[in-house]
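Technical note accompanying the year-one report. For the benefit of new consortium partners, we illustrate the data format agreed upon in the data management plan: each record pairs a sequence with a structure-token string. No post-processing was applied to the example shown here.
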Amino acid sequence: MTLLKIKKTLQPLIVEEKIIFGFGQDGIDRSIEKSELNIDILKVLNGEKEREQLTISTEEFNNKVKVLKDLGLLTINDYDKQHKYSRNINFFEWMDISNNTDPSIYQRKLNNAHVLIVGLGGIGANVCEILARLGIQTFTIIDNDQIDETNLTRQGTYFKEDIGKN
């Protein structure tokens, strides 16, 4: 069973009578009421406290967790820094305000996408490279031009020996 936890990308901050997640980030900030129970539940989800230490019913605990999930504050992200796309996955987690708890689904969508690029000039070649670095694996590329010397200063995909090639 994968454990839900508070998103590291939205660490809570207590401000007056609220616990704010994503503080100062318009559009992704959310809050809950500051209460001892809410703080304790956050500690349980953060692994700082055991569930058994709370004196609430399983139903009440699950209801509180559902509120946090519905606010998009929970994740199953394992924060594996060695994963090739860990930075992408953490970004998706940070920006996702839905109740999705698995930010890697967005990376899988990128990995499975098929992108058409028309024109592999100064913009198209750079867009293609960036998309490949993001994880797109399947491209259809259309360009009926030949590589010339001016391409060498605008694109990192061509070299002097490529001049004249289609």
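Partners are asked to follow this layout when depositing records. The chain has a mean pLDDT of 93.
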